[in-house]
């Protein structure tokens, strides 16, 4: 029991250390590409897409490999170590195309490392605590997201080279934490069940819902989010990063209560609640005022932090191929985000604002309204 508790605690700690580095690097690279390399908004979205797509495909590969050979769980920790070598390369770029290439590498390493960590935290937690332990894992990650964004704001004067070195250090620490955690939890890791669970659970419907969910709220994640918030609200880069980090932290804190409800059998209600929040958030974010953009970000991130641990819990308990299912979940979620960011980035460059009285509404976000309706309908029909 001590070994199990230690391993889970170390993985939760790895979510904290790894996310700090990731959230420090994301705005640093986004604003460096926009301001120094003079990239367009569609180029920024392509950078995000490169990362998300490569992460999606490597997530599937990681889940499939782990299903075949349990020992490959340690590959996740080594992939995280690879991030430490990639980060300093951003400071050497002189075009956004080079940034895309580095983002592809980042995506491969992240796709191999984080889904494995999420799989291990879910399957190794006691059944009656899975929802809350998984939510706690993401809560620590999102507290780190706030600190990472705030660290970016504090280190703007140091330049991108120093910021990337700090990010690299955090990934080295994260890799060591993961290696130790996997060793401690090795006996609890079961990538595939010998028998299917009873009931009418359909993992494919959950995966389809996840893809549309993350497509609809794609505006709330990645490089493009930082640029949109800064330009929509007319605030400086450090303030935009801090605002996004704060909204993520608030969303994560609020999401712990739904995770408790999910653990006592209220999964359907919690899932519906998360979907409704996600559906409303891009419409609210389209209204370019601090009183709408910030609440929209909180809603979107609250929805993510509620939805993400819940669907992983459902797959861990009910799916027969647990590691492959979680790898597939990460893949379709990333693909949904990719398509959403591509649409947002493309529309941002060709659609302007529409004035409603004194209020400006961004059409590139308003076009997500039909998908918001579709998301709610799909959630109702998933059973």
Automatic annotation (TrEMBL):
<feature type="transmembrane region" description="Helical">
    <location>
        <begin position="240"/>
        <end position="258"/>
    </location>
</feature>
<keyword id="KW-1133">Transmembrane helix</keyword>
<feature type="transmembrane region" description="Helical">
    <location>
        <begin position="41"/>
        <end position="65"/>
    </location>
</feature>
<dbReference type="Pfam" id="PF07690">
    <property type="entry name" value="MFS_1"/>
</dbReference>
<dbReference type="InterPro" id="IPR036259">
    <property type="entry name" value="MFS_trans_sf"/>
</dbReference>
<keyword id="KW-1003">Cell membrane</keyword>
<feature type="transmembrane region" description="Helical">
    <location>
        <begin position="164"/>
        <end position="185"/>
    </location>
</feature>
<dbReference type="GO" id="GO:0005886">
    <property type="term" value="C:plasma membrane"/>
</dbReference>
<dbReference type="InterPro" id="IPR050171">
    <property type="entry name" value="MFS_Transporters"/>
</dbReference>
<keyword id="KW-0813">Transport</keyword>
<feature type="transmembrane region" description="Helical">
    <location>
        <begin position="72"/>
        <end position="92"/>
    </location>
</feature>
<protein>
    <submittedName>
        <fullName>MFS transporter</fullName>
    </submittedName>
</protein>
<feature type="transmembrane region" description="Helical">
    <location>
        <begin position="359"/>
        <end position="378"/>
    </location>
</feature>
<dbReference type="GO" id="GO:0022857">
    <property type="term" value="F:transmembrane transporter activity"/>
</dbReference>
<feature type="transmembrane region" description="Helical">
    <location>
        <begin position="323"/>
        <end position="347"/>
    </location>
</feature>
<feature type="transmembrane region" description="Helical">
    <location>
        <begin position="270"/>
        <end position="287"/>
    </location>
</feature>
<feature type="transmembrane region" description="Helical">
    <location>
        <begin position="104"/>
        <end position="123"/>
    </location>
</feature>
<feature type="transmembrane region" description="Helical">
    <location>
        <begin position="206"/>
        <end position="228"/>
    </location>
</feature>
<feature type="transmembrane region" description="Helical">
    <location>
        <begin position="293"/>
        <end position="311"/>
    </location>
</feature>
<keyword id="KW-0812">Transmembrane</keyword>
<dbReference type="InterPro" id="IPR011701">
    <property type="entry name" value="MFS"/>
</dbReference>
<feature type="transmembrane region" description="Helical">
    <location>
        <begin position="135"/>
        <end position="158"/>
    </location>
</feature>
<keyword id="KW-0472">Membrane</keyword>
């Amino acid at each position: 029991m001590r070994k199990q508790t230690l391993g889970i605690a170390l993985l939760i700690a790895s979510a904290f250390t790894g996310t700090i580095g990731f959230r420090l690097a994301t705005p640093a690279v986004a604003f460096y590409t926009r301001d120094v390399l003079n990239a367009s908004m569609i180029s920024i979205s392509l950078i995000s897409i490169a990362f998300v797509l490569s992460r999606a495909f490597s997530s599937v590969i990681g889940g499939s490999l782990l299903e075949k050979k349990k020992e490959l769980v340690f590959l996740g920790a080594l992939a995280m170590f690879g991030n430490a070598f990639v980060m300093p390369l951003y400071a050497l770029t002189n075009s956004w195309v080079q940034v895309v290439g580095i983002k592809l590498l980042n995506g491969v390493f992240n796709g191999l490392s984080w889904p494995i960590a999420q799989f291990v935290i879910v399957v190794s937690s006691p059944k009656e605590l899975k929802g809350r332990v998984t939510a706690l894992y993401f809560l620590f990650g999102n507290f780190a997201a706030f600190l990472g964004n705030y660290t970016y704001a504090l280190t703007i004067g140091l330049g991108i080279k120093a910021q990337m070195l700090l990010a690299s250090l955090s990934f080295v620490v994260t890799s060591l934490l993961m290696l130790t955690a996997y060793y401690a939890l090795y006996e609890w890791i079961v990538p595939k069940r010998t028998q299917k669970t009873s009931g009418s659970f359909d993992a494919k419907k959950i995966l389809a819902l996840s893809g549309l969910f993350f497509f609809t709220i794609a505006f709330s994640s990645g490089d493009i989010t930082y640029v949109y918030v800064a330009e929509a609200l007319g605030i400086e880069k450090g303030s935009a990063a801090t605002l996004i980090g704060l909204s993520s932290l608030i969303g994560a804190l609020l999401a712990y209560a739904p995770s408790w409800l999910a653990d006592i059998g209220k999964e359907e209600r919690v899932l519906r609640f998360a979907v409704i929040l996600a559906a409303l958030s891009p419409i609210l974010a389209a209204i370019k005022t601090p009183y709408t953009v910030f609440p929209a970000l909180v809603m979107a991130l609250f929805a993510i932090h509620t939805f993400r641990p819940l669907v992983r819990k459902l797959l861990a308990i009910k799916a027969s191929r647990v590691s492959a299912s979680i790898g597939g979940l990460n893949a379709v979620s990333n693909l949904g985000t990719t398509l959403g960011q591509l649409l947002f980035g493309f529309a941002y460059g060709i659609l302007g604002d529409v004035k409603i009285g004194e209020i400006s509404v961004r059409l590139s976000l308003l076009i997500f309204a039909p998908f918001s309706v579709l998301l709610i309908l799909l959630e109702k029909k998933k059973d």
